[in-house]
Design a protein that fits this description.
By secondary structure, the protein is α/β, with parallel strands linked by helices. It is built from 17 helices and 10 strands. The strands form 2 sheets. The protein has a 7-stranded mixed sheet with strand order 6-5-4-7-8-10-9, with helices on both faces. The longest helix is centred in the middle third of the chain and has 23 residues, at about 150-175. Keywords: Melatonin biosynthesis, Methyltransferase, S-adenosyl-L-methionine, Transferase.
């Protein structure tokens, strides 16, 4: 679109204005169980049938269903002047709660936690700090005490972290040949989602997840059903790290300030065996700061929820080099998350 057309009718601006309307429509349909109901039914249902089973207002439900058709989350078929709705293939795969690749818990975390934080973005920009106190009345100085403030919130966050690996996990782990690394330590490995992908790609390796005690307990209770993955309870800043061939830090470095990143990476370098390495998995910014838009939005979210930010490949390169790592390589996956490998 030319600049003249943009000035005459700023379509993109109007789409940005409505962005949160799209998100909340998606979140609401998930929360009410519309996709689950349609999946279970196995056939298209009318508005009246859907609202009756959900216990919702019929007219309001019809508007929501229509909006979901517009968002290409549902399909509609007219029969005798009446609309019948069914899931799209994408909704069946990613929005039905029982699907192995479900994003349902991610959507709920965005709706109930992240969306609340974003109400206070102007305050975060003015103050340069996270907004959990305003959003949830929490005053802790420890970001993970905020994130894990209840079992329900802990499990919701862990589901959110796990779900993205359904579509990105194998890509980031296959970006480099990691088969020579036999003992792996997944630092802050949370639910074990990425660790499971690692073992499927490199079955001769072993993986130990190091995470906070409350996270390990919830992982064993809700996520890990076999003994292939070993868990180690600990705080990676304050407790000793296990000696390993490869350390994975997936969406960890972006949580912290430069000083804390260097403190952790230096600690990892000292614990890493000779010839070993560290794999960072992060949403990389372009060097000229032109994008990607998703990484730029993630960086704002880091401001609202953590102490950190997203960084460019050169910034991660410098963090690793300053910590002693060499032969640093970067691989883009074409998805949300990319891979950076440094060797000792």
């Amino acid at each position: 679109m030319s600049s003249v057309q943009d000035l005459d009718y700023p379509k993109q601006l109007l789409e940005y204005r409505d962005g949160f309307l799209f998100s909340k429509t998606l979140f609401t349909a998930c929360e009410l169980g519309i996709f689950d109901l349609l999946h279970k039914s196995g056939e298209a249902l009318s508005t009246l049938a859907i609202s009756s089973q959900l216990g919702t207002n019929t007219d309001a439900t019809d508007r929501l269903l229509s909006a979901c058709v517009g968002l290409k989350l549902l399909k509609v078929e007219m029969k005798n002047n009446e609309a019948f709705f069914s899931n799209t293939d994408v909704s069946n795969m990613y929005l039905v709660k029982s699907s192995p690749r479900s994003f349902y818990q991610m959507m709920m975390y965005y709706s109930k936690t992240i969306y609340m934080c974003w109400h206070f973005l102007p305050d975060a920009i003015r103050e340069g700090k996270r907004q959990y106190e305003r959003a949830f009345g929490i005053t802790s100085e420890d970001i993970f005490k905020d994130l894990y403030r209840s079992e329900e919130e802990t499990v919701s966050f862990m589901h959110h972290m796990e779900s993205i690996w359904h579509i990105c996990g194998k890509d980031v782990l296959a970006a480099f040949d990691l088969s020579s690394f036999k003992e792996i330590c997944d630092i802050g490995g949370c639910s074990g989602g990425l660790a499971k992908h690692f073992l499927s790609l490199y079955p001769s390796s072993s993986v130990t997840i190091m995470d906070l005690p409350e996270v390990v307990q919830m992982a064993k209770k809700h996520f890990i059903t076999d003994g292939d993955i070993v868990f180690l309870e600990g705080d990676f800043f304050n407790d000793p790290l296990p000696e390993s061939d490869l350390y994975i830090l997936a969406r960890i470095i972006h949580d912290w300030t430069e000083d804390k990143c260097l403190r952790l990476l230096n600690k990892i370098y000292k614990s890493c065996r000779p010839g070993g390495g560290v794999l960072l998995v992060e949403a990389l910014l372009n060097e000229d700061r032109s994008g990607p838009l998703s990484s730029q939005m993630f960086s704002l979210n880091m401001l609202l929820q953590t102490e950190g930010k997203e960084r460019s490949a050169s910034e991660y390169h410098k963090l690793l080099a300053d910590s002693g790592f060499r032969e640093i390589q970067v691989k883009a996956t074409g998805k949300f998350y990319d891979a950076v490998l440094g060797k000792k």
